[in-house]
Amino acid sequence: MKKTVISAALAVGLATTPVWASEIIELKVLGQPGATGLIQQEKEKPFFENLAQSTGLPLEVNFKPLDTTGIKDVEELRTLKSGLFDIVSLRFSQVSRDEPTILGLDLVGLNPTYEAGLATTKAFGPVVDARLQERFNTKLLGIWPFGPQVLFCNSPITQLTDIKGLKVRVYDQNLAAVIDSVGGIPVPLSFGEVHQSLALGVVDCAITGPSSANSAGWPEVTTHVLPLGFQMAINGYGVNLNSWSKLNAEQQGTLEQAFSTLTDDIWQYSEELFEDAKRCNVGQEPCLYNNKFDLVEVPVTAADIALVKDAVKAISYPTWAEICDQSNPECSSDWRAALGARVGF
């Protein structure tokens, strides 16, 4: 009788043991587009290629950059929820139409510096994580920035308001509202479409980070850059909860620590790349990581800085809150509780 009870208990224990605890399993990872540049190439890609070895977890990682798959960046949350990939390097602005709460991390004017961006992610990141777990069966494993997003144009400008009447590439509805407020014509385009669109005159200007623009060759098809940061281009790593639940508690802790180390590294590297690319794009030294070009750097005026700073309360927050509250009734109240005091609400 005792032997039967022990056997039954052992069978139950085996049935509830996470699969990843004892078996090598393929981990399908969808990364950033390779064209976005050095963060993907020097940090993200090596991290996943060496993940099994660096953590000791029984993983076989299959890493694919987004631009090799035919999947659009706006589809990433749906792709992750479906289980097609176990981990996705989420482009937050691009997927925010599926979950507007995400955009609360990076409203135009909210994160003028890396320090401000880090404070924002710590304060509002848990709210976004809870929402993604609820709606998309996705847990956040880390949040990181590409860095301040600045303006590139293929015609002379002297200040931000000179974009009046010009077609400007944007990547989310919040940025579109701010560009529209100064008379620009916002044109939503994926990153991979921008170089050709600038070359053909489909758009006159476009916004992205200096290093991403450098890697994608935007200075080849533009003449002026206004280094005024609109957003920080916050991104994050999401894991499908079904995949996550196959890890035991110890393995989950190991993986979380690995992603924490990675994202800390990216925050520092992103700032180094930003400063280097700012110099490289306008032909200055030292130029260590990026290609050297000869764009004209447009001086940032006090009026430009004030316009973007004031956009949080005047444009970007109210525009976003109205949209977000329609799908998530607690969206704007959660944001105000986490960040409202910092911006003067």
TrEMBL record:
UniProt xrefs under CDD domains: PBP2_TRAP_BpDctp6_7
Keyword Acetylation: no
Any single Pfam family the record assigns to this protein: DctP
InterPro entries in UniProt: DctP_fam (IPR018389), TRAP_DctP_sf (IPR038404)
GO aspect biological process, one term: transmembrane transport
Keywords of this entry: Signal, Transport
Domain of life: Bacteria
Leader peptide range in chain numbering: 1-21
Keyword Membrane attributed: no
Similarity annotation: Belongs to the bacterial solute-binding protein 7 family.
Protein name stated in the entry: ABC transporter substrate-binding protein
